[in-house]
Amino acid sequence: MNFKHKYVFLFPGLFVLIGILIFPIIFTIRLSLSGWNSYTPEMNFIGITNYIRLFTDDPRFWESFFRLSFLSVSTVILQYIIGFALALMVWREIKFKRFFRVIFLIPMMTTPVIMTVIWRTFFHESLGPVNDLLGHVGIGPILWLSDPVIAKFTVIIVEVWQWTPFMFLLLLAGLLSLPKEPFLAAAIDGASSFRKFVYVTFPLMAPISIGAIIIRLIEASKIMDTVFVLTSGGPGTATETSSFYIYIKGLREFQMGYAATLSFTYLVIMIISLTIIAKVLTKLMIKE
Amino acid sequence: MKIIKTCLTAIISSVMIFSPMAYADKWSDQFPHIKATGDIPGECSYESMSKKNYKGKTLKINTHAVPVMGEPTALHAEQFAKLTGAKVDVTHTPAGDLYAKAMVPFQAGQAPYDIVFGFSNFINDWRRYLEPVPKKYVEMKQMQDVTPSHIGIASWDGVMYQFPVDGDRHYLKYRKDVIDNPKYQKKYKADTGKELRVPRTWKEYGEMAKYFNDWDWDGDGEKEYGSAEVMKKDDLMYAAFYSRSAAYSKNPKTPGGFFFDLETMKPLINNPGFVEALTDWVEATKYVPPGGINFGLGDEIGSFGGGQTLFSFSWDDAFVAAMQPDSPINNKVGAAQLPGAMKVWNRESNSWDEGFNQAPFFVWGWAVGVAKKSKEKEMAFDYLCFFANEANHQADIGIGRFGVNPFREADFKADVWTQIGWDKDIAQSYVDTLAEMENSKNRVFPLRVPGTFEFNAALATAAAKALAGQLSPQAALDEAAKQWEDILNRVGKDNVRKAYAVGVAMEDNKL
Q1: Alpha-carbon distances of B61 from B92, B111, B403, rounded to whole Å
Q2: Which end of chain A is less congested by CB atoms within 10 angstroms, N or C?
Q3: Mutate: best of A146, A147, A230, partner B, most B CBs <10 A
Q4: pLDDT tens for each residue of B145-198
Q5: Would you say B380 and B115 are in contact if contact means Cβ atoms under 8 Å apart?
Q6: d(CA A64, CA A272)
Q7: CB atoms within 10 A of CB A187
């Protein structure tokens, strides 16, 4: 048998991989070395000019990156805490368990853009129902979308509402797959519910938790639609995130070359930072 | 014999006189949109279009989202299809993406759309990809009525690239029932010692807006506010800022540039005139409705048109929306030129020139062109000509949400507006305002240079930071000016100067 035949079977997969992953990355790198924009629509070569501009003369990108870090880390932490709490709730034998499981998943099943439009209407400062209701109890009006600090928390609220069900789903699947023996042993030893959670459930859930947190961090770091619809990055640049900023540079201002520089730099930063986060989480949450 | 001759003459004359009406009946029955006027004879009328046969052909159009411009595009597409047998595909795109949606295929040498809608200030970036409007359309009767300003806006170096379908300028809209109300005039005088009148300056505008902010002055049980303005970044807010800046910065004694000094190409947007305007604007955040700092154009139209504020200034749409029969403030609004200022910055003497100054802003508006690579150019131009024919135009300008605004000499007659239910004095003040702007010798035209989008976006970001309190007005505009310098270096000063000179010539009344 000629073992070289096996490579023939690799080609389709390899071809697809090159087409959908390698080629776009190489193209992005090449584009980032060009000055393609609305008035120079060509793949010229300008060396690392765009990278020099990014690292020496674009504080807005770095501000948006740190803002993104704050938004994604805080939303994922909240999603993890609430998602875990909900998963624990329906993991136990409670009434209408199946009903709650479906209810908790509804936000994730809705279209993010449509839901954000609805949230924007809720939070509309002068016409929305939230301020109207708060007004009846003497609160407000709260500037949900117009105050630079509050607007960030509004984005967090919408993101947490939308994506906590995803965390809930992963963690519930993890809980359902846990072995029963450690819990039986803890029960025989007379451990309280709290101690069972701290010494049995949480450690057993650590690998799944890390996976869920990393998946959500990757997704949260791409936050775009919520910001786009809810605040357009405003007021000022108070809620502008990296992906929204890259969108503005690329598709609003048509600085394709520079937007490619931002995208590639962002990709490298994300790969490095997520690898570090995964290592740190593993060290913190999984004890040998 | 004489009697027969007289009868024949009478019959022939009657036929000739009433034939347009006969068409009007025939076409307005089928197309109720033009029921007020019926078809109006012309090269692109309903009658003329019905003689064209585009059966088996498809016209592809990219336009704005519904309703502003998107709704009339779709409506006229449907009518055009019925008349000519063509298939018309209309794609709706949000305002912020119109530029890129056309530019990406333009630069790739493709023509997924035969017709592309955008803003008139895209002209410099788009013109190399657009087919110039053919002579036969430029010389048509309906085109002869377009005002010289709007012919200039649709053209570059004397070549028309954009088919005029809309005319735009920013002006002041105010609640006539408040400003002209003797009870409020007396109260305002007693409380402030000042006259309540149509504000002549931005300072007066601010004082009145602040006074009428956050209380129920129309007795509807809900609070009203001072002003509705487009303050949302990336939602045309830079146009609002230019409007507020013109009076402080467009000095008729210093021709040669409003945005840049044409000679040196030094950005002027951080000079004391612009800083004063931005300082006023930051102050305005105190008299807009809650959340007003996030108002885009749609919010501004809804807020003023819905009776929520005393003042507003931007495109015609809010005014026309307010004047529609279903509006709560129908016939309670007035129009006037943008407020002026009691001083204007003189960049040559580097000091303020004292005295009243006013400068209308001919802001960009909706514009549309035919792709050079389109295979259906004739049909595309016919569609545009039909879109803007006299019957459609008269019907469209009376519907606020359509975003089609006056750009023809005929539109500046009060009768056009009284016919659709406006009070005579309001119609007169409206057309007078528009005419005064047309006749002004101290006008500002939009920036139409390579990289326009970048310049405006940089300014919008800086102004938005000032409005949000992230930066002081001076620091924000210094940041914008620095970015403008960077953009100039990237695009090339000479490239920008060459293009900017065309706009400056219009501002300096040389074109």
Answers
A1: 9, 11, 17
A2: C
A3: A146
A4: 999 888 988 999 889 999 999 988 899 999 999 999 999 999 999 999 999 999
A5: yes
A6: 18
A7: 11
In a mutagenesis test of the A interface, which of B490, B495, B496, B498 is the best target, namely the one with the most A β-carbons within 10 Å?
A: B490
Q: Which residues of chain B have pLDDT under 50?
A: 1, 13-24
Whether residue A237 and residue B464 make contact (CB cut-off 8 A), yes or no, is yes
- pLDDT tens readout for residues A139-166: 878 999 999 999 999 999 999 999 999 9
Rounded to two decimals, the pTM is 0.85
Kindly indicate whether the domain formed by A59-285 is annotated with CATH number 1.10.3720.10.
yes
Query: CA end-to-end span of chain B, whole Å?
Result: 60
Predicted pLDDT of residue B357: 97
What is the pLDDT, as a whole number, of residue B16? Answer: 43
- The answer to whether B324 and B402 have CB atoms below 8 angstroms apart is no
What integer pLDDT is reported at residue B255 of this predicted model?
A: 94
Q: Which helix (H) or strand (E) holds A4?
A: none
pLDDT of residue A185: 94
Specify whether the CB–CB gap between B334 and B252 falls below 8 A: no
pLDDT band of A80, cuts 50, 70, 90: very high
- For residues A173-186, average pLDDT: 93
Which of B331, B315, B353 has its CA nearest to residue B434?
B315
Instruction: Give the domains, in start order, of chain B with CATH numbers.
Output: 10-164+364-405 (3.40.190.10), 171-362+442-507 (3.40.190.10)
Q: What element of type H or E holds A13?
A: helix A5-17
Q: Alpha-carbon distance A55 to A62, whole Å?
A: 9
User: Which H, E and C letters describe B147-163, residue by residue?
Assistant: CHHHHHHHEECCEECCC
Tokens of B327: 């509006």
Pairing verdict, β B155-156 and B159-160: antiparallel
Q: Give the list of residues 6+ apart from residue B398 with CB closer than 8 angstroms, or none.
A: B36, B320, B324, B417, B420
Residue B8 is predicted with a pLDDT of 53
- Residue A39 has its nearest CB partner, among B234, B291, B491, at B491
Q: Cβ A234–B470 below 8 Å, yes or no?
A: no
B288 touches A: beta carbon within 8 Å: no
Q: How far is A250 from chain B (nearest CA, A)?
A: 9
CA dihedral B233, B162, B28, B415 (to 10 degrees): 70
- Phi and psi torsions of B357, nearest 5°: -140, 140
3-class secondary structure, B53 = coil
Alpha-carbon span B32 to B399, nearest angstrom:
14
Instruction: Looking at the complex, report in whole angstroms how far the Cα of residue A266 sits from the nearest Cα belonging to chain B.
Output: 21
Round to whole Å and give the CA distance between B205 and B309: 12
Q: What is the pLDDT of residue B18?
A: 42
Residue-range domain boundaries for chain A: 59-285
Q: What DSSP line would sit under A176-213, residue for residue?
A: HTS-SHHHHHHHHTT--HHHHIIIIIHHHHHHHHHHHH
Closest CA to A220 of A115, A110, A109, A73: A73
Q: Half-sphere exposure of residue A198, counting CA atoms within 13 Å on the CB side? A: 5
As a whole number of angstroms, the distance between CA B510 and CA B255 comes to 11
Name the phi and psi angles at B334, rounded to 5.
-130, 160
Supply the pLDDT for residue B2: 53
Residue B116, φ and ψ in degrees, nearest 5: -125, 130
Identify whether the C-beta of residue B443 lies closer than 8 Å to the C-beta of residue B434: no
The CA distances from residue A145 to A132, A140, A225, B292, in Å, are 15, 13, 15, 10
Please report the number of interchain residue pairs, chain A to chain B, with beta-carbon separation below 8 angstroms. Answer: 101
